[in-house]
Amino acid sequence: MAEEAFSIDKRPLRDLLQQVEDGRAQLPEFQRGWVWPYPNIASLLASISLGYPLGTLMTLRAGGDVRFKYRPIEGATLPGPREPESLVLDGQQRLTSLFQSLKLDRPVATQDVRKQAVSGWFYVDMRKVLDGFTDREDAIRFLPASRKVVNFRSEVQIDLSTREKEYEALFFPLNSVLNSDDWEEGFEEYWDDDRAMRRLWKDFDKAFIKPFILYHVPVIELGKATERQAVCQVFEKVNTGGVTLTVFELLTATYAADEFDLRDHWERVCRAAWQAPEYRILREVSNTDFLQAVTLLATYRRRVAEAAHVTEEDRLPRVGCKRKDMLALSLKDYEEHAPAVVEGFKKAAKFLHQQHFFDTKFLPYGTQLIPLAAVLAAAGNTAEPAGAQRKLARWYWCGVFGELYGGSTETRFSQDLPDVVEWIRGSDQEPRTVTAAQFAPGRLLTLRTRQSAAYKGIYALLLKAGAADWRTGEPVKVTDYFDEAVDIHHIFPKAWCEQNGFKPEIYNSIVNKTPLTARTNRIIGSQAPSAYLAQLAKTAEIGPEDLDAHVRTHVAGPVLMRADDFDGFFSARKAALLAAISGEMGKAILTDAESDADAAWES
Question: Of all helices (H) and strands (E), which one includes residue 27?
Fold first, then answer.
């Protein structure tokens, strides 16, 4: 932010509310809706009547290079289109509450404590203001839109439906507090200039009305030269509602200034492109994920274009998709690169199907979809040959089994895109994700639940190996697998392992688990493998050799299972799974001893 990027001053409350009414002060489109319940509003009104501070408002001076779509503050009805002079960044809830309760001649549309929609009017009991012991907040009442309060027998307890009834009950309407002359005149006429009532009005005016008239609000105003990233950051730092402003919301407001509806484009064009069942793996791709991929592609293509006439590496624009990069994405860049990214995500779904990932439930990393889609968008047809697909698969599996996409990932994304695209196009340099990935054999023993990426990856490998139902011999169907007719179960049953003294950390590991149909698992029960294999063969009306062939599709040894040799089975299957992982990663897996030695050397 530049010099004199903001100013601080105190402004009369009545002037601020007048700016809301005539449209000089409005909201940027990215601001969320007004949600304050009426007890919060009553508390705010009480605080102002006592001269207590309500906190600082923050606005952005309009008319700068960074443009946002804007809208009036809720309740304000402008006579026609009006360019705002300032946009409210912080203080929306307070300013809207005050505007609706103090300036509008219609019921305030708010919520009750259960967040149910209600509407009504704010009044203050004049006698309670002046009695010297009633808490000010208790003196303020919220009445229904009818201005009548009834009990459970429908008997009217309070009726303020006419001005005369307000005067008689000594209840002052808050929407007259900033212009009370007419109400005062009617009040004195109703009480026929009664001396006691004139004194009551004078005391009430001093104790309650004057604080509103004299009230000033501190306002920090950001200059019109404030950058978009700074607006976003400031909004999140000061927003008292704790609302996180997403990049998508901010860009939606920015693009709307050029009559482009980003939200509609995302829903109607982008996400709609992958609604068919074969794209179900994409159903959790968010609008921010999509923007991240578009930003990656835009910055990559910009770097490639600059590289044609700039030789110094450090002078080339960076590839990136961090928040600041996304906020810098122009509408022109978005419109240029979004179509390729839509196709990139569709190609990513096809690629993942080929790797036997069919549903988000078993997708190792949703985040890895972002660079995958960007790579496929950037590489275009060069990613289609078998050799290119093998390289792409190797990079993907290294990310999965190296478990490299679980933390902060933006830097890895920015490395992946140029690394993988250049590798696919013939570079001898392996991507940094490939060189960094390591899988320690001991990790198999700690993979016990679906929460880890490597666990999900191993089950995709089993499907890829052709895992068949042990009873029918049919390959595990995608529809069966994800309709949960197939689930993950122990090969040596848990009860059998417990009875034979094996440790839970061993028998609950992924080495002793595989996808089985519910019916097959019911036959297995808690029996020893030797017993249930015989029963399965009998039920399936097949010989032992055929059943053994079915078992082998799960990278499992039927001979050791028939011997109930858990230790031998476990060791053999662990080795087979490590070989399969090594094959997908395209690199040797160090033994546990070698891994420990490497760690010691590096330390």
Answer: strand 25-28
> Residue 595: is its pLDDT beyond 50?
no
pTM: 0.72
- Radius of gyration of the chain, Cα coordinates, nearest whole angstrom: 34
Residue 277 and residue 15: Cα distance in Å, rounded? 57
CB 373 within 8 A of CB 341: yes
Rounded to whole angstroms, how far apart are CA atoms 441 and 333?
A: 45
Q: Which one-letter DSSP state was computed for residue 268?
A: I
Residue 449 vs residue 582, higher pLDDT: 582
pLDDT score, position 477? 60
Instruction: Name the helix (H) or strand (E) containing 566.
Output: helix 566-585
Tens-place pLDDT, residues 300-319? 999 999 887 877 777 788 99
Q: Which residues of 343-382 are buried (b: 16+ CB within 10 A; e: fewer)?
A: ebbbbbbebbeebbbbeeebbbbebbbbbbbbbbbbbeee
Q: Tell me how far apart the alpha carbons of residues 295 and 334 are, in angstroms, rounded to a whole number.
A: 8
Q: What is the sign of the dihedral through the CA atoms of 450, 351, 388 and 579?
A: positive
Asked if residues 220 and 7 have their Cβ atoms less than 8 Å apart, the reply is yes
Cα distance between residue 13 and residue 15, in whole Å: 5
* Residue 577: pLDDT over 80: yes
* 3-class DSSP string for 579-596: HHHHHHHCCCCCCHHHHH
CA distance linking residue 414 with residue 93, whole number of Å:
39
pLDDT interval class at 331 (50, 70, 90):
very high
Evaluate if residue 238 carries a pLDDT over 80: no
Q: What is the mean pLDDT of the chain?
A: 89
The answer to whether the CB of 60 falls within 8 A of the CB of 219 is no
Rounded Cα distance between 52 and 5, Å, is 29
pLDDT at 510: 93
Tokens of 219: 């306002």
* Helix (H) / strand (E) containing 10: strand 6-12
Give residue 8's pLDDT band: very low, low, confident or very high (50, 70, 90).
confident
Each residue of 408-423: pLDDT tens digit?
788 999 999 999 999 9
Query: How many angstroms separate the CA atoms of 545 and 469, rounded?
Result: 15
CB under 8 Å to 483, separation ≥6 — which residues? none
Q: What is the largest CA-CA distance in the chain?
A: 110
**Beta-bridge partners for 222:** 6, 60
The DSSP call for residue 489 is: E
User: Two tokens at 269?
Assistant: 């064009």
For residue 24, count CB atoms less than 10 angstroms from its CB and return exposed for 0-12, middle for 13-18, buried for 19 or more: middle
List of E strands, 29-155:
57-61, 70-71, 86-90, 108-111, 117-125, 140-144, 148-150
Q: Which residues contact 429 (CB under 8 A, 6 or more apart)?
A: 419, 422, 423
| 202 CB-near residues (< 8 Å, 6+ apart) | none
Structure tokens given for 526? 């808690």
Helix, strand, coil % over all residues of the chain, rounded to 5: 55, 10, 35
Burial class of residue 234 (count of CB atoms within 10 Å of its CB; 0-12, 13-18, 19+): buried
Q: What is the pLDDT of residue 63?
A: 79
